[in-house]
Design goal:
191 residues, TIM Barrel, alpha/beta, 9 strands
């Protein structure tokens, strides 16, 4: 989906904030910021792939986000800027709901993140979503939902909900994730 299409869809859907987390690339974020209409907040983020899985990283430090590569080790908590939140993206996608994953692995990775993507629009696996939600409860992590969409038809298949008027900028989103004040939602494509 082109940037202008994405922005038009966001306005049509009445969204107040959007976030794009491309793999190790901030170019689309820059395009979105330069073209976003007034009243639509664009939150910066990057997705990275690691041995332990894929992770969405949100930070107020744009220069630091720009240093992240598409594939690299997950930065340790003490290597991240203070105002940073890390979300484990689609942890059980394609692995039969994650029931065969070892508990030691799940605990180790869960302790490195602030939230878990419970719903992902590209991986509509209810068993995986139930397992991801159990991890959020077990380790006290934020619930996240993401459309992970590359086509208009799938935009907003899944989403992250927060309280009314609470996302003003990236810092407010990061703090909501860290305080576990988010909820994952999933429904029909397009709204």
């Amino acid at each position: 989906m082109r940037v202008n299409e994405y922005l038009a869809a966001a306005v049509e859907l009445g969204l107040r904030a959007i976030c794009i987390t491309n793999h190790g690339d901030m170019a689309d974020y820059d395009r979105l910021v330069s073209r976003a209409p007034a009243g639509l907040e664009v939150i910066p983020g990057v997705e990275i792939s690691c041995v332990d899985g894929d992770f969405l990283i949100f930070s107020t430090e744009l220069d630091w986000l720009r240093t992240l590569a598409p594939a690299q080790p997950l930065p340790a908590r003490n290597q991240r800027p203070a105002e940073t939140a890390v979300v484990w993206a689609h942890p059980f996608a394609g692995v039969f709901g994650g029931e065969r994953m070892k508990e030691e692995y799940l605990e180790r990775v869960s302790r490195q993140v602030d939230g878990i993507e419970v719903y992902n629009g590209n991986w509509p696996d209810e068993q995986a979503s139930r397992r991801a939600r159990r991890l959020t409860l077990q380790y006290g992590l934020a619930e996240i939902g993401g459309s992970d969409s590359h086509r208009r038809a799938n935009l907003m298949r899944c989403w992250t909900e927060v309280g009314e008027d609470m996302i003003r900028d990236s810092l407010s989103l990061i703090r909501l994730i860290k305080k576990r004040e988010t909820a994952a939602g999933c429904g029909q494509p397009g709204g």
